[in-house]
Amino acid sequence: MDNDLAPPAGETTGATDIAADVEAASPVDGCPVPPVDSEKVAIANAASAAIQATSSVAKEALRFSSRNLLTWFILGLLAVGLYFAYILLRPFANTLVLAVVFAALFAPVYTFFRNAFKQRESLAAMVVLLFVVVVVIVPLVLLVTGLIPQMRHSVTSVTAWLAEGNLDDIFTRYLNPFFDWLHEEAPFLDVTAESAKADILEAARHAGQAVLGLSANFVGQTLTFILHFLLFLVALFFFLKDGAVMIARIKYLTPLREEQQERILHTLSRVSRSVLAGGFLVAALQGTAGGVGLAIVGIPPLFWGTVMALSAFVPVVGTGLVWVPAVGFLLFTDQWKSAIFLTLWCGLFVTSIDTFLRPYLMRDASGVPILFLFLAILGGIQAFGVFGLLYGPIILTFAVVMLKIYADEYQEQLKSKSAWARQSE
After folding, report:
1. Is the pTM value of this prediction over 0.70?
2. Is 178 in contact with 191 (CB distance < 8 Å)?
3. Which of 91, 114, 146 is the last residue of a domain?
4. What's the total number of domains in the chain?
5. Could you tell me the CA-to-CA distances from 291 to 36, 300, 332 in Å, in that order?
6. Which pLDDT score is estimated for 234?
7. Counting Cβ atoms within 10 Å, is residue 212 exposed (0-12), middle (13-18) or buried (19+)?
8. Which residues span the domain enclosing 409?
9. N or C: which end of the chain has fewer CB within 10 A?
10. Least confident of 11-25, 123-137, 218-232
11. What is the pLDDT of residues 263-304, one digit of tens each?
12. Phi and psi at residue 358, in whole multiples of 5°?
């Protein structure tokens, strides 16, 4: 009788089947079958379902864990690869970025020649490369070549002028009475003629050492400059020729939507063009015009014109950092006519270049407030050196455009948060 109640070999019965078998069984040895406890059957069924659900969840969690592990492993290898690629390219980062910016600036010229040459991309890129070399690179090399001797001559002249006691004469005739009056009216400032004179001499000494060190370093780095120049030309060629393919690949790898990608690329391209055209072109024009005025009054034009061009990047004061002290020097040395001429020349003509031409050329970057642009330039110079003149505005613009994308992407949440804040008030 016990064998009649056992399940067939190879079969598994659930709690419900067992209960059914028990109810259908005949009395054993004359003993009635005890009634089935339905509550226990329900508990057994629930336990069986829970075991099956737990097994399913465990299998799914295992599959998810495997996928998650694979994802993190791939991302880790990608991060390692990008890090070592950055180490390899870091010595040439500034050169490559400059080539990218020039490619964006001359992209319309490249498109024109490509259409003119019936889609021959390599030929069009070579023509643009030759154009860049003739129009930009050659004048820049000639400028630097002539700048180094004049830098040394200017430092030597200033040192000799100070050694002759001319600064003492200027203080005696013009500045001592001013500092005496300042000491009487504002003694808390603790500024005297002697301390001011010592500060001027110390600043002149440091400036002279910096200029001489810069010129010597440039001569010593000639081979490195040639290497970076050749790399710039090669990179510019391929960025012009294959730039569209590179951009398409980058867009494919980013999870951003198409309109967001276009917004970022269009804004950065537009701002880089504006910085080069409205920044560097205006600075070059102001430096050239200022150098002409300085040459007329007998001040070395190439060196101080270059300094004036660099000072043009400083908002608000601009080229006044150079020509105002130059006018003061002419006044202190009794060159009144030259001082008046330089004031009119720089105050009217040179300044008007910045006033009228820069807003037109930098109209695409006008969304950035002047204060933030000023901070971006100063911070860029401190962080990246001379390349910060370019990097600062571009980095700031990228931050601004990402904030705008964030605001557009989460505008509903931001609106609801703002409405909740108003209701709370």
Report:
1. no
2. no
3. 91
4. 2
5. 110, 8, 21
6. 92
7. middle
8. 254-420
9. C
10. 11-25
11. 888 888 777 777 777 778 888 889 899 999 999 988 888 888
12. -60, -45
